[in-house]
Amino acid sequence: MKVVGLVGGVASGKSLVAKRLAELGGKILSGDETGHAVLRDPEVIEAIRARWGSEVLDSQGQVDRPSVARHVFGDDKKEDRKFLDQLTHPRIKQKLLAELEAHRAADEKLVVLDAALLLEAGWRDLCDVVLFVDAPHEARLARARSRGWSDAMFAAREQAQWPLEKKRTHASAVIDNSGTTAATLQQVDEIFDLLVSRQCGR
């Protein structure tokens, strides 16, 4: 089984690439969804409440992610972000490992790990191949705005990740998402063909 990690800048088009790989037969493992599951862990909820108070919980006693985001994104909030990362990342990795084992037991051929902080969290060792999705800053900012993000939100999330060039150096291949969707998908198709033919390795 090949495990393909997807990385890139904020709003670079990772979801587009993941969707195409799924259409080609890959199984998608979402770091975001796994992270959301971890935030429902009672121990995690209590640790977050103890750190920031009940204001970060919703009416059902669950973690309100936008409220937590206000505590962890920004240059002056590195200690809070470090706290959250140390609390959640080991638990997320444990769940990812379990899901990967389930896919392996099901004899899946290709699993795509779509996780924004894959490299920052130290999950590179889970992957055989890492694809870096590249897109111009202005295009990424426009996509973020279309999601309702302010420019400040975009910048804060960008600053919470590794610089793009550092991510690129850890990638096995780069997908250029600066052109048309068709051009991007063609690159994905070509990489998929290499992966399934076992011509592309770690």
From TrEMBL:
EC number, UniProt record: 2.7.1.24
Positions annotated to bind ATP: A11, S12, G13, K14, S15, L16
GO terms of biological process kind: coenzyme A biosynthetic process
Pathway where this protein functions: Cofactor biosynthesis; coenzyme A biosynthesis; CoA from (R)-pantothenate: step 5/5
PROSITE patterns: DPCK
Catalytic activity: 3'-dephospho-CoA + ATP = ADP + CoA + H(+)
EC primary class: transferase
Location(s) in or outside the cell: Cytoplasm
Main localization category: cytoplasm
InterPro entries, A to Z: Depp_CoAkinase (IPR001977), P-loop_NTPase (IPR027417)
One Gene Ontology term, aspect cellular component: cytoplasm
Keywords: ATP-binding, Coenzyme A biosynthesis, Cytoplasm, Kinase, Nucleotide-binding, Transferase
One MF term in the entry's GO annotations: ATP binding
Physiological role: Catalyzes the phosphorylation of the 3'-hydroxyl group of dephosphocoenzyme A to form coenzyme A.
Protein name: Dephospho-CoA kinase
Taxonomic source organism: Pirellula staleyi (strain ATCC 27377 / DSM 6068 / ICPB 4128) (Pirella staleyi)
